Amino acid sequence: MIDLDKDFEMKMGHLSRRTHELEIPVMIIIEGALASGKSRLANALYMTLDAKYTDFFATHPPMEVDKRYPFLYPFWKALPKNGDINIHFRSWYAHLIDYEAQGIKDNIRVDYKYIRDDIYNFEKTLIDRGYEIIKFYVHADDDVKKEHLKALEENPASQWKAEEFQERMDNVNYEKEMEIFLENPTPSPWTILDFKDEQSSVESLFETIFDRLERCIEHREKKKKPNVDGEFIENYKPTLFNFDFDKESLDKDDYKDKLEPLQMRMREIQFKLYEKKMPLLLVYEGMDAAGKGGNIKRTRMFLDPTGYTINAVSAPTEIELAHHYLWRFYIDVPRSGHISFFDRSWYGRVLVERIEGFATNKEWKEAYQEINNFEKSLVHSGAIIVKIFLSLDKDEQLERFKDREKDPDKEWKLTDEDWRNRDKWDQYIQASEEMIFNTNTSEAPWYVIPGNNKRYARVEALKRIVEFCERRLEE
């Protein structure tokens, strides 16, 4: 057991309370070879922290349930709240090494090098949003590891652990793989601790943490009030939504003839997705009253309800606001072979949050690349993503608002917020166009569909979904 200096405990307590007051989320990563002594260091650190604001996560070798979700899912799910501290005993680095050692490809549809890129982007996304990530690698030479293993073997209560360590040491060349991560630049630097001298290693651990926390506290305290004006252009002239809305229409007979075959093909695609263990995310954005709900209803008409979920996105809750803005969406991504519908989505960051000043100019500008990286990481883990934007002209929206006011069965759909949004129509148009231009990618394309004629929009959206899914399934 490590005998910790009382001054370390007091200083750690003071700094962790200050990061909590300033709502700085902290992630401390402890990697190291088996029997290197990293568990002793992790426990010494854990004992100094307030249990109310601290979580400890030990990353285990991937099990069957892990293979049903994207590679980074467990780490997004475990993100600390603002002001809390997570200790990751082994992390996404060890997780990838386990994947490579076992040749796991169940939920990875690309070369492992792309997952390394996803790890880099994951860290950068968090750091850009104010997370403090402190990474340690615990090194021990062979003599030290043998000494630790011998101590485990000689204790009847821990013999099983020594046997498990030995088996895993024989199967996984962890240290060699970690050298690659340590040599390559990452958004947050590594600190290497040599456990040959136990006392100096624990002192280095705490001194590094103190230095990093003091710097991030100083930076947060000096932070200036950010700009939140959205940078909108007066009299903005749209270039993407200049449809001839009257031209894009479909009569009732054509609608019936075209819709059901597409719905039945969508059902076949659902079974094929399950067979190939590929998740599907269907994202719907658009003007208020553009018909997102009606589109989703027709798309899922003949689907097996045990294989899909509907995520109707509204204003974030208190717990969601205390996390990274992408957190609440990552925890709702579908497991392999399932479908998730998103009635509005993470694009709120560059739409309503930009328009209403809930995101700073810096935040929503950086969100375009963050979202692209987020979606790319899902595709790397086997997902298909199709994004539908339903466009509507302003006069048609007003007609639909009035119809909802008059219809007792639909008046609940119309809120004061809808009318406020309408007052900012030009801003929504500009934000929507810039969103589409900046996030339309080959991995996750946007399909912009004129929605004045509901029948046309439903058929066209479903047709685009079917075509893209068929293409990806063939690949």
Automatic annotation (TrEMBL):
SUPFAM superfamilies named among the record's database cross-references: P-loop containing nucleoside triphosphate hydrolases (SSF52540)
UniProt KW keywords: Transferase
InterPro entries named among the record's database cross-references: P-loop_NTPase, PPK2-related
One term of GO molecular function: transferase activity
Domain Polyphosphate kinase-2-related positions: 11-210, 250-470
Stored Pfam families: PPK2
Keyword Manganese: no
PANTHER family xrefs: POLYPHOSPHATE:AMP PHOSPHOTRANSFERASE, POLYPHOSPHATE:AMP PHOSPHOTRANSFERASE-RELATED
Listed name of the protein: Polyphosphate:AMP phosphotransferase
Organism: Aliicoccus persicus
